Amino acid sequence: MIRLLLRRLGGAVLVLLALSAVVYALFYLAPADPAVLTCGKGCTPQRLAEVRAAMGLDESVATQYGHFLRGIVVGRDYPAGPDVRHCPAPCLGYSFETDQPVTALLADRLPVSASLALGAQILSLVVGVGAGLLRSRFVDALVLIGYATPVFLVGLVLLLVFSVQLRWLPFPTYVPLTEDPRGWAQNLLLPWTALAIIQAATYARLTRAGVQDALAEDHIRTARAYGLPERRIRTRRALRGALIPVVTLTALDVAAIMTGAVLTETMFGLPGVGQLLVGAVNQIDLPVVVGVTLLTGVIVVLGNAVADVLYAAVDPRVQAR
Predict the structure, then answer these.
(1) For 26, 47, 213, 294, which has the most beta carbons within 10 A of its beta carbon?
(2) What is the pLDDT of residue 315?
């Protein structure tokens, strides 16, 4: 297991290094000049040259990328007039729009997105696996509807019904978990539900298929021959084998929900990473866009690594390969 873990971590580091090169090339070596975007419309040629020198754009591409990686690992110094401004590691530069460190902006928004993603993932897992164990046409119809309904439509209906008409829940605003756990859950319940419905439908279909396959295996027929109750066979024996793909998919889906929460955060007005990205794209704030892209890449890569380890933990045959 340790050997597998080290191998996966090594692969994750290589993938992240390649991702950083691709992201840097896409955003900083594109035809649009980042110095022009930073300087603004009324920028003079002299000021543009100063901004370009301050950003290191007058150096070779390899040197610029080296400074970019060095900033992530050990931090970086930026000229600020006669002074030098130090950006501590992991440094992703400063926002063109707010002049704040990108890492500080991400750290401020990440708890919101993490709360949204983890809560939605837990809710979708519980509902999806439970629905997958039931044998009901009504549940099958709900699963199909949930799978086919766009998240923005689900969110809009939830807001209109539970916040506007019934007034059972407040319009979602983010309350930190450490300050008010009840308010935190109460305000995130609608966004969790909107995000969880599609994922729950996926888990339900996956669990249903896995249980049906497991019920056809020899050890299940043996258990029935010994007279074990059908409910115990389904929940303790068939479900155990059916959960292997669900467990691996769960680790991947946490990353997918984090990256796919842009629409949900925007719809519910939650100040998360997705909302930060939308604002950065509208303002062509390249450092923030690069930072969000790298953050989502890290989450996806780590999610894949965790999925591999979990798959090996629940299926020993993987470790032997």
Answers:
(1) 294
(2) 63
